[in-house]
Design a protein that fits this description.
Blueprint: E1 2-8, E2 17-23, E3 30-38, H1 42-48, E4 65-72, E5 84-87, H2 97-100, E6 126-128, E7 131-133, E8 145-149, E9 153-155, H3 162-165, H4 171-183, E10 190-194, H5 198-209, E11 214-218, H6 225-231, E12 235-237, H7 246-254, E13 260-263, H8 268-277, E14 284-287, H9 302-305, E15 309-312, H10 320-332, H11 351-359
Parallel strand pairs: 10-11, 10-13, 11-12, 13-14, 14-15
Antiparallel strand pairs: 1-2, 2-6, 3-4, 3-8, 4-5, 5-9, 6-7
The chain binds nicotinamide-adenine-dinucleotide (NAD) and zinc ion.
Amino acid sequence: VIRCRAAVAWAVGKPLSVEEVEVAPPKAGEVRVKIVATGICRTDDHILEGGFPDVEFPVIPGHEGAGIVESVGEGVTSVKPGDKVIPLCIPQCKECTFCLNPESNYCLKAHLSEPQNLLPDKTSRFTCKGKQIHHFLWVSTFAEYTVIPEYAIAKIDAAAPLDKVCLLGCGFSTGYGAAINTAKVKPGSTCAVFGLGGVGLSVVMGCKAAGASRIIAIDINKDKFAKAKELGATDCISPHDFKKPIQEVLTEMTGHGVDYSFEVIGHADTMTAALASCNMNTGVCVMVGVVASGSVISVDPMLLLCGRTWKGTLLGGWKARESIPKLVSSYLEKKFNSDLLITHTLPFAKVNEGFELLRAGK
Ligand code: NAD
Ligand code: ZN
């Protein structure tokens, strides 16, 4: 058993509490990882706010980390102690019918099919003050050591800087892949990205890499525009600057709507606005933002009847275990610069300050 620090969410609506926890050794098929760095994704904040009733408290959140294998349980063959790894919030078991389908990146062991509040044997490896603490998506990267099933771990290049490539565990890969894999943005096309957080800015990078000729970035926080431009946005607009709905503004700007639109906020109203912003016949709208569970979106069916496509994406469509290591290699070959997404670097004890910066739009 390892004693170390972890940020525990004891109850909905409470700040994280950095505590000493006990982390049990990995059982068969599991890997214990020393987490070196973790990002903060808005999804973690949705969890703290209680947006997902199926996440059980107390819990150690965090799902965008990178670390080093400390020890492995019986039967683990794909990683060994000392390997650099990225924990995967969407596993890839390589055995289920979804994993065997080349078109799918959703593994049937993922949380929408099977709760990941406990490890697959339905027990926890975390305790704190004598209480069992839940895992989050099996990765719980807000802990100095965490235990993860082997099929939710990707071994990455030993040269990778963990404090940078941790972003490839969720935010960057999700946004970049939403443009490249899910929308399949074509060269010369026009794109609109709603929401310029870490994930939305990664969509901008993906659209640019795919050769889009016009990328319209939309946010109510204009402080986000400089970075969006640096990453490839050609126009930046705030819905607050217009009297008419943003979808009408975008249709006027482009003639018949954009070729690809992306909602990267997580609100029902911006999801319908994004859908209505793309070309009525050939447009593709990708839903990236996560709405609180139980939310319902009402849309005019005519929006789809004319031919538009409305899609969602999980982790940008990447088959995680095989694709994240390749993305890390592309990072090392400087094919993209996800370092530009890093705004602040804080010591672990200041994790709540990180959330305050996220909520303040900084
Ligand atoms: P973030 O909070 O950093 O960014 C959201 C941005 O949207 C902010 O810049 C905010 O100012 C802007 N915004 C808010 N309301 C707006 C409005 N009405 N119009 C225009 N802009 C508005 O969040 P993030 O970490 O970038 O995550 C974005 C979303 O993606 C979240 O909902 C998150 O849960 C989701 N997400 C989904 C996946 C996936 O696999 N599908 C993965 C990671 C994150
Ligand atoms: Zn995330």
